[in-house]
Amino acid sequence: MIKVGINGYGTIGKRVAYAASMQDDIHVSGIVKNTPDYMAYLASRSFNIYVPDDDKIKEFEDHGIKVKGTLNDLMESSDIIVDATPEGMGMENIKIYKKKGVKAIFQGGEKSNIGDASFNAYSNYNESFKREYTRVVSCNTTALARTLYPILNDYGIENLNVTLIRRATDPNDNKKGPINAIEPSMSFPSHHADDLKTVLNLNNVYTVALKAPTTLMHVHSIEVLLKDDAKIDDIMESWLKYNRILLIEGKDNFKSTAQIMDMARELRRDRGDLYEIAIWRDSVKVIDKRLYYVQAVHQESDVIPENIDAIRSLSGIDKNESIEKTDKSLMISGGIFYGKE
Amino acid sequence: MIKVGINGYGTIGKRVAYAASMQDDIHVSGIVKNTPDYMAYLASRSFNIYVPDDDKIKEFEDHGIKVKGTLNDLMESSDIIVDATPEGMGMENIKIYKKKGVKAIFQGGEKSNIGDASFNAYSNYNESFKREYTRVVSCNTTALARTLYPILNDYGIENLNVTLIRRATDPNDNKKGPINAIEPSMSFPSHHADDLKTVLNLNNVYTVALKAPTTLMHVHSIEVLLKDDAKIDDIMESWLKYNRILLIEGKDNFKSTAQIMDMARELRRDRGDLYEIAIWRDSVKVIDKRLYYVQAVHQESDVIPENIDAIRSLSGIDKNESIEKTDKSLMISGGIFYGKE
C-alpha cells in the first residue's frame, strides 16, 4: 500500500482524497485542513484530520473536530504528500517535504520548475517514474494534453491555436467576477501555451484565454494544423482508444456546458464530477489538414485521475496498470455517449 | 435631402433613427412601431409615428400616442426604408417595398440574397451604389470586415480562423439564456464564415461561435495567416487609417468588456453606445506570418454607421464623403485611446 497524505482540502484536495480512497493499492493516511469550517467537519467523517501546526489543534477541538496531529506527523505516516494548498504555496511547502524526505505531488498553479517533471498520464507518465517531486498540470492544460496527445501521436502537429473560454470561478465561490462581462487574460499568448509544452512535445502553440461569467466548465475552441492528413473518422478512432475522452453530440441535447454537467450528475458520479474531457462530435472538422474541434472541461475534476496516476508514477508502478486501475475505480469509460450509465 | 423611413424601432431601429437625424443630408420621415409601449411613447417625442396598418391606429391613440399614418403612407413620403423588423421578416416586407417602388436597407438577420448586395462601408460600399436593395451584415460580421479589410488590403489573407464569444442577449432582454453556461453554436463553422465572404474577398475562413452569459459585448479571438509578412507596427498603421477601429490597452484598465462599455458611457455617446470596434493592443502579435488579435464588439451599435452609409450608397453619394459625414456627425474618431473625449 502506498500511504498518501493530502495537504489542503479545497476543490482539488477533497477530490483527490476521495479518489485515492477508492484505490486498492493506496491508503489515505490523512488530510491537512487549515480552518475548522463545515468542510473540515465533513472531512473528519471519512479521513484523519491533521493541522498545519500545534497552534491550530485547540481551535479545531473547540469546534468539536478531532485532530490526529500536525503536518509533521502526517508526513511521518505518508510515502507521498499530494499538495493541494492554494496556488503559489508549493514553493514554500517543498522545503518542508524535502527536509522530511517525503515525496510530493504539486498542482498546476505552481511554477513548472518546482519538481523533477510535469505530469499528464497519457503523454508523459514515465518522466515522473520513481522521481521525488512532480506537478500535475492545470485543468486546462490537462484537457489539451489529453485530447491532443492521440492526434500528435497519430498525425503529428505542425501548428496549434487554442481559444480558451474560461469559467469565471468555481461553483462554491460567490465573490469572484466577471459577473456580466468577458475578460481576456492580458497575456498573449496566455500561459497555457508554455504550460502545454511541459507535458506535450510541441513547437508552435498559440493560446488566448477569456473569462466568461459562468461557474460550470471551461470550453476550448481548437485548431490543429496536422503534419499528416486525416479524415474525421481517423481522428475519432484516435480518440476512442482513450477512456478519458468522451464524445457527445448536440442532437442528444448537449447544447451547452449546462447539459453536460447535468449528465454527470445523472450518472451519479461522485460530487456530480466529470473526469473525462467532453468533445462535441458536431464540431470535429478537417479542412486542408486543419483539424477543428470544441471541447468542454470540468475544471474541478479533470485533473483528479492524473493526481492518482502521479502517485503511482512516483512509486514506480507501470503506466498502463495505473491508468487502468484509476479508470476502473472511478468508473471512467469514455467513448461515445449514448445514454451511457 | 434623402427622406428615410424606419420600419421597426427595436435595438437597431431606434439607433438608426437617432443617427439618421444627426445627418445634414438625411431627413427621418418617420418610424413604424408595432405596439404602443413605453418605447413608442418616447419615440413620439422625436419622430412621426406610423403603424403597420389601419387596425392599429385606434390602439395607439387609446394610449395617447399620435399616429401620423400607416407603413403605406410612410413609404410615400420616403426615398428609402430602413427595415429593422425582427429577423426573417424582411423577406415578406421586401414584396411591399417593391410594389411601392421604394428602396430599402435590410439587417444582417436576413438571408444574404435578399437584396442586390450585402454592405460594409469600408470593404464594399460601391457594390450597393445606386442599387435598390442592400443588406447591412450583422454586428459580428461588420466587426470582422472592419478590422480585417485593412489587413487584407495591405498584406493579403491566406487563412482566417475566428472564435466568437457572443453575449447571450441584449441588455433590455430579461428572458434569454444561457444564465450559467457556455453554449457553442451547433453549426461548425458558424454562419459568420459564409457571411463574412459576402462583404470581404476571402477564401479560407473558419469560425466557431459560443454564447456566454453576458449582455454587454461580443469578443472575437482572431488568427490571420497573412500572405505577406508584417510587423506589429505595420499592422497598427494599417488600422490607424480607419476611424471605426479603436485601439485600447490593458494598462489603462480596459480589463474586460465592462470597462469598455463604461468608457463609452463616460464619452457621453448617445445611449452609451460604442460604434467603433475595440482591439486590445496587448493582444496584437505576429508569429511566422500569423497575426493574432482580440477585439470587442458593441452588438447594439457597431452597425449603425453602416446603416447610414448604406442610405448614401443606395442614393449614389460618394463613399469617402459619406463615411466622413457619418463619422463626424456621430463623433467617431477611432485611433489609440488615451483618455480621449
From TrEMBL, chains A, B:
<feature type="binding site">
    <location>
        <begin position="192"/>
        <end position="193"/>
    </location>
    <ligand>
        <name>D-glyceraldehyde 3-phosphate</name>
    </ligand>
</feature>
<dbReference type="GO" id="GO:0006096">
    <property type="term" value="P:glycolytic process"/>
</dbReference>
<keyword id="KW-0520">NAD</keyword>
<dbReference type="InterPro" id="IPR020829">
    <property type="entry name" value="GlycerAld_3-P_DH_cat"/>
</dbReference>
<keyword id="KW-0963">Cytoplasm</keyword>
<keyword id="KW-0560">Oxidoreductase</keyword>
<feature type="binding site">
    <location>
        <begin position="11"/>
        <end position="12"/>
    </location>
    <ligand>
        <name>NAD(+)</name>
    </ligand>
</feature>
<dbReference type="GO" id="GO:0050661">
    <property type="term" value="F:NADP binding"/>
</dbReference>
<feature type="binding site">
    <location>
        <position position="109"/>
    </location>
    <ligand>
        <name>NAD(+)</name>
    </ligand>
</feature>
<dbReference type="GO" id="GO:0005737">
    <property type="term" value="C:cytoplasm"/>
</dbReference>
<comment type="similarity">
    <text>Belongs to the glyceraldehyde-3-phosphate dehydrogenase family.</text>
</comment>
<keyword id="KW-0324">Glycolysis</keyword>
<dbReference type="GO" id="GO:0004365">
    <property type="term" value="F:glyceraldehyde-3-phosphate dehydrogenase (NAD+) (phosphorylating) activity"/>
</dbReference>
<dbReference type="InterPro" id="IPR036291">
    <property type="entry name" value="NAD(P)-bd_dom_sf"/>
</dbReference>
<dbReference type="GO" id="GO:0051287">
    <property type="term" value="F:NAD binding"/>
</dbReference>
<dbReference type="Pfam" id="PF02800">
    <property type="entry name" value="Gp_dh_C"/>
</dbReference>
<feature type="binding site">
    <location>
        <position position="167"/>
    </location>
    <ligand>
        <name>NAD(+)</name>
    </ligand>
</feature>
<dbReference type="InterPro" id="IPR000846">
    <property type="entry name" value="DapB_N"/>
</dbReference>
<feature type="binding site">
    <location>
        <begin position="138"/>
        <end position="140"/>
    </location>
    <ligand>
        <name>D-glyceraldehyde 3-phosphate</name>
    </ligand>
</feature>
<feature type="binding site">
    <location>
        <position position="299"/>
    </location>
    <ligand>
        <name>NAD(+)</name>
    </ligand>
</feature>
<protein>
    <recommendedName>
        <fullName>Glyceraldehyde-3-phosphate dehydrogenase</fullName>
        <ecNumber>1.2.1.59</ecNumber>
    </recommendedName>
</protein>
<dbReference type="InterPro" id="IPR020830">
    <property type="entry name" value="GlycerAld_3-P_DH_AS"/>
</dbReference>
<dbReference type="GO" id="GO:0008839">
    <property type="term" value="F:4-hydroxy-tetrahydrodipicolinate reductase"/>
</dbReference>
<dbReference type="InterPro" id="IPR020831">
    <property type="entry name" value="GlycerAld/Erythrose_P_DH"/>
</dbReference>
<comment type="subunit">
    <text>Homotetramer.</text>
</comment>
<feature type="domain" description="Glyceraldehyde 3-phosphate dehydrogenase NAD(P) binding">
    <location>
        <begin position="2"/>
        <end position="139"/>
    </location>
</feature>
<feature type="active site" description="Nucleophile">
    <location>
        <position position="139"/>
    </location>
</feature>
<comment type="pathway">
    <text>Carbohydrate degradation; glycolysis; pyruvate from D-glyceraldehyde 3-phosphate: step 1/5.</text>
</comment>
<dbReference type="Pfam" id="PF01113">
    <property type="entry name" value="DapB_N"/>
</dbReference>
<dbReference type="InterPro" id="IPR020828">
    <property type="entry name" value="GlycerAld_3-P_DH_NAD(P)-bd"/>
</dbReference>
<keyword id="KW-0521">NADP</keyword>
<dbReference type="GO" id="GO:0009089">
    <property type="term" value="P:lysine biosynthetic process via diaminopimelate"/>
</dbReference>
<dbReference type="InterPro" id="IPR006436">
    <property type="entry name" value="Glyceraldehyde-3-P_DH_2_arc"/>
</dbReference>
